[in-house]
Amino acid sequence: MFRRLSDRASGEVTFTFDGLPVRASAGDSVAAALLAAGVRACRTTPVSGAPRGPYCMMGVCFECLVRIDGMDNRQGCLVPVQEGMRVETQHGARALTTEPAQ
Amino acid sequence: MTEGMVRRGHGIADLADEYDVIVVGAGPAGLSAATMLARFKARTLLVDENQTPGGQIYRAITLAQSADRRRLGEDYWRGRGIAEDFLNSEAEYAPATTAWSIQSVQDDAERIVGQEVGLSSTGMARLIRAKQVVLATGALERPFPIPGWTLPGVMTAGAAQIALKTSGLVPSGKVVIAGTGPLLYLLAAQLIEAGARVSTVLDTTPRENWLRAFRHAPGFLVSPYLAKGLKLLRTVQRRTRVIRWVSELAAEGEGGLREVVWRAGGCEHRLPADLLLLHQGVVPNVNFSNAAGCAHEWDEAQLTFRPQIDEWYGSSVAGLSLAGDGAGIRGAEAAAIQGRIAGLGCASRLGLVAPAERDRLAVPLRRSLARAMRGRRFLDELYRPGKEFRVPQDPDTIVCRCEEISAGQIRTSVSAGAGGPNQMKVFLRCGMGPCQGRLCGLTVTELIADERSKHPCEIGFYRLRFPIKPLRLRELAALPQTQTAKVAVLADLADTHHSADWNERKPQ
Ligand SMILES: Cc1cc2nc3c(=O)[nH]c(=O)nc-3n(C[C@H](O)[C@@H](O)[C@H](O)COP(=O)(O)OP(=O)(O)OC[C@H]3O[C@@H](n4cnc5c(N)ncnc54)[C@H](O)[C@@H]3O)c2cc1C
Ligand code: FES
Q1: CA of residue B98 to ligand 1 center, whole Å
Q2: Which of A92, B311, B467, B469 is least enclosed, having the fewest CB within 10 Å?
């Protein structure tokens, strides 16, 4: 889907996506790193379970939601990847551990 | 690169409790406003969600190399000066920081004496006061609700540009670009210059727009848009196939994009595709100004709502100004000038510049602004997206991506009594997902207007509330338990349950 320009590859970072190692460039957002690795869908919807992938890359659509280091609902397009990060597909709704109390 | 370009931003914990001015958004408008304010010695804080300054047009400009200049063009490179001026100023800069609320602070006589802005970054939230706030939150790409637009493999053309600017990623495989708008050919040309092999550009500009635009041709002919536009068109046409007068468009595939289907010249066409990039212009990102209670109006030329502003870019809420494309689409050059005028307005309200001096300084700025806006009317008319691409005719087309609500469901709910966007929330939960209506608001308004044979201005837009982005419990817990803080956060949450809503949603 995407390939990286040779003059733009900077320091290499390794993270995992659903347990598999993925190589990225320092400065990539998680969403960009996944696109570069050929990952199209990064979550399924809470309503119908349909697969979705990044749509806007600028923080407005919330289609890039992933689980990062155990925390659900991170906007992959706004979070820079980091060495050793654990990124996972987000399946439907997130666990009820981190949202505000009623 | 100067020292300034590498200056580090401030972490949220290091920010002061109070500033003269908080500017939200580090695009041309926000950068210019903050630079202007710092010049008048206003204690200024600029916050932006992104890691580096630049906003949309100048995204990642402080990291750009000469190869990026070649690929992205001189208009992009111009952003270096704007970013540099800001980074060399005394203004403080908090990157990777999201602003999620704003609340007026009143004195005992109930006069508004300032604003309290909710900020969060890397898991920490704070409420910071300012006497004046400038929102320069820019635009987003207009929703493009076609069948299949939620399939993985369908993105906006702007999203591909962002991947190119920030990560040097170029679309590969079978790539189709579709839509309309002054930026469509720019985005296509940039991707092509960067080495993307775009198989086809599907131009959805309606034929009749040319007639309507013609009246405004004189302004366009003397504007720089003409030469730039022709150059982009040539680049794209030389390197890829352009199909015009596309009247229907759909993305098809199971679990991901497989084919793009369109209708042109009365025939249906299909093309296998790995990536479909959609774009039909940009519209103001009104979520913040809407939630802040600013008055908005319908802009008929741009088919969108935009906040009302005065000659100093002040909104209807005291102490809150709006500059740049977030206040109405005028383009990047105009955004930078507006930012400076808004900065002058704030500086004057703070008593840092006398009104006469403010007016004198604004004269050349207003002149440049008028020049920068030449030709816009022509572009607005020419690139007005067709109704079939704004108001889905196929009842199965998804309108609200978050809650997966279709055009048919919305039309049926209108008949069942949901006469406006806010009732539609109650009926269908549309607009209540995490994007908070950013990707469906305009479509819902126009669909209801269509169904009720009314004008969108009679239908209105979602009434939005803070926090405009979901917060986490630990961010809330970290907030000081002052009275205002409690009111700001708890009232909002109690009102909307926005953040809770989308989390508790279970698969059905
Ligand atoms: C994806 C995209 C690509 C574009 N590319 C071009 C281009 O190449 N050339 C061109 O001429 N025009 C482009 N535009 C049009 C754009 O609107 C420009 O005219 C210009 O960038 C507008 O400047 P601005 O300062 O008003 O806002 P922007 O440049 O959009 O800057 C707004 C900034 O505010 C930040 N922000 C928004 N909300 C918040 C919040 N709640 N908290 C913290 N920060 C926030 C954003 O992260 C962004 O950095 C593009 C628009 C989009 C949407
Ligand atoms: S891709 Fe749209 S919010 Fe991240």
Answers
A1: 14
A2: B311
